[in-house]
Design a protein that fits this description.
By secondary structure, the chain is an alpha/beta fold. The protein is built from 7 helices and 10 strands.
């Protein structure tokens, strides 16, 4: 995925579909060619995938859809667990980490993940670029809504007023679905949308994506144009 941007460039928003867990479901998602597919390794997530399964699925997707990038998503994993997953050659382009700034900066010293760490931040108050500086150098951020004792997949949308000053590149996550994504993206300065549960059929089927919802979401976002500075 190319993150190069030029002043006042008009381009489509990026699409990241997260929580891919099952082989057939993942191939279905890939067929709609999102920019990024997310694979969750957090022991706290109902969409957790084991490395062996990811090793079987991602090479097949890469063979057929070379333009899709892949992000391993971590929350409450140890540094060793993160590095062990990321050292698997040819699997992951990014390590999306939901942890505090000290944890993320300490990881950046490891050459296995240098330049690949995406800081995922749960927003609970107004923040600025200065707030994000403490996470070190990252290719982009993921901004999600904060919900006590939950690490994501809450269906809650970030308060647009809290992130209106952010100019650093970020994907917006939290509560997005085919019906609201256009309106929500128009209210912020994100470079793309990160979605998981919004493409599913309910909390009883985590990881099972709905084909019609995927098609509608991707089509809607691809029609939009975002201006980058």
């Amino acid at each position: 995925m190319k993150m190069m941007m030029t002043k006042k460039l008009q381009r489509s928003y990026l699409v990241k579909i997260c929580g891919n867990k099952f082989a057939n479901e993942s191939l279905k998602v890939a067929s709609y060619q999102p920019d990024i597919m997310g694979w969750i390794f957090s022991p706290k997530s109902p969409r957790q995938i084991v490395l062996k399964e990811a090793e079987a699925m991602i090479p097949l997707i890469r063979k057929n859809y070379q333009n899709i990038s892949h992000a391993a998503v971590f929350a409450e994993n140890t540094p060793k667990e993160i590095i062990d997953v990321m050292r698997m050659k040819g699997l992951f382009d990014f390590a999306q980490v939901i942890e505090n700034a000290d944890f993320i900066r300490s990881l950046q010293n490891n050459p296995i993940v240098t330049g690949k760490i995406v800081a995922s931040i749960r927003v609970k108050e107004a923040i600025s670029d200065h707030c994000l500086d403490k996470y070190g150098s990252v290719p982009f951020f993921v901004l999600d809504a904060f919900v006590e004792n939950q690490l994501g997949g809450t269906g809650k949308i970030v308060n647009a007023k809290w992130i209106k000053k952010i100019t650093k590149p970020y994907l917006l996550a939290g509560g997005l679905n085919p019906q609201n994504v256009a309106q929500v993206l128009s209210s912020v300065h994100a470079i793309g949308a990160d979605v998981s549960s919004g493409l599913e059929d309910g909390i009883l089927l985590p990881g099972r994506k709905n084909k019609a919802k995927i098609a509608s979401f991707v089509k809607t976002v691809r029609k939009l144009q975002c201006a980058t500075e």
